[in-house]
Each structure stands twice: as C-alpha cells, then as structure tokens.
Design a protein that fits this description.
By secondary structure, the chain is largely without helices or strands. About 5% of the residues lie in helices and about 10% in strands. A 3-stranded mixed β-sheet has the order 1-2-4, with no helix packed on it. A two-stranded parallel sheet has the order 3-5. The chain is globular and about 40 Å long.
Length: about 200
C-alpha cells in the first residue's frame, strides 16, 4: 500500500495486513489500526499521535523517532520492536508484549505500562518519569541511566517475579516491591537486593 493511499484511507486500516510496509514519515494521526498486522513494517519518523493500535502486531517493526503521543497500544504485540528516540508520551501499553523491545533514548513520560511484559527490554537513557508501571514485568530489562522520577511501581514484582534494575554501577534486584516515588538516576549502589520493601 502506498503512503498516499494509506493517508487517504487511514480510518480503514482496522485488521489490515500491512506486513513489511514502508510508512516512513507518513501521517497516520488518529488512524484506526486496531488488530492490524504491521510485522517488520518501517514506521520511521511517522506520525501516529492518538492512533488506535489495540491488539496490533508490530513484531520487529522499526519506529525510530516515531511520534506516538497518546497512542493506544493496549495488548499490542511489540516483540523486538525498535522504539529508539520514539515519543510515547501518555501512550497506553497496557498488557502489551514488549519482550526484547528497544526504547533507547525514547520518551515515555506518563506512559501506562500496567501488566506489560518487558522481559529483556532495553531502556538505555529512557525517560520514564511519572510512568504507570503497576505489575509490569521488567525481568532482565536494561534500565541504564533511565529516569524513573515519580514513577508508580506499585506491586511491581508480584507472582514471585524479580525486577532487575540495571544501572551504570551494577544491578539492583527488588523482590515483591511496592514503590510510589522513586528515582534510580545516578545510583551508586552495587549488587543490592531489597526484598519485600515498601518505599513511600
């Protein structure tokens, strides 16, 4: 599908098969992409502000520098998706599969990652300030130099999961943690394990 056709019919992309499509720089603001197949699609620098991508499959897609402000990605499949330098301010990623996803230098302020699976995800120099991270799975995730000021980490490691915060100084493991106001910026602790704690 050409970019011009996609822009013209952007409200008619629900469930569409767009695997491998090139949407570089395309304006898809407010588009309905619910359940669409966007596996391996190129969405570099695209405008997806306010788009509906609920249950869409973006496995292996490239969204480098893409603007997803206010986008709804609830229950989307985002395994190995590249969000480097992407803007996801106030985006919804509730129950999304983000295994192995790359968020390097991305802006996720006020993002909702409740119940999302971020196993092995990369958050190098990512902004997660005031993010909602309730029962989010960060197993083996890399959060080096990530900013988590005022992030909500309530019931972060329920069901026995272990959250490992990878910092420039070492690895921190928080088991069965409930945190409300926490910033892990410039942490100087190394190999610290904090079990069954509540940081208010």
């Amino acid at each position: 599908m050409s970019k011009s056709k996609a822009e013209k019919n952007k409200q008619n992309l629900k469930g569409a098969n767009l695997q491998g499509a090139d949407f570089t720089g395309t304006n898809l603001m407010q588009a309905n992409l619910r359940g669409a197949n966007l596996m391996q699609a190129n969405l570099n620098e695209a405008k997806l502000n306010g788009a509906k991508l609920i249950r869409a499959d973006l496995t292996g897609a490239d969204l480098t520098g893409t603007d997803l402000t206010g986008t709804d990605l609830t229950e989307a499949k985002l395994t190995d998706t590249n969000f480097t330098r992407a803007i996801l301010i106030e985006a919804k990623l509730i129950r999304a599969d983000l295994t192995g996803t790359n968020f390097t230098r991305a802006n996720l302020m006020w993002v909702n990652l409740t119940l999302a699976d971020l196993t092995g995800a990369i958050f190098t120099e990512t902004k997660l300030m005031q993010a909602i991270l309730i029962e989010t799975n960060f197993t083996r995730a890399n959060l080096m130099q990530t900013k988590l000021t005022e992030a909500d980490l309530t019931r972060q490691t329920s069901c026995g999961r272990i959250l490992r915060w990878q910092t420039s100084q070492g690895q921190i493991s928080l088991r069965q943690t409930s945190c409300r106001l926490i910033s892990l910026r410039q942490i100087s602790l190394e190999q610290i394990s904090l079990e069954q704690i509540s940081l208010g």
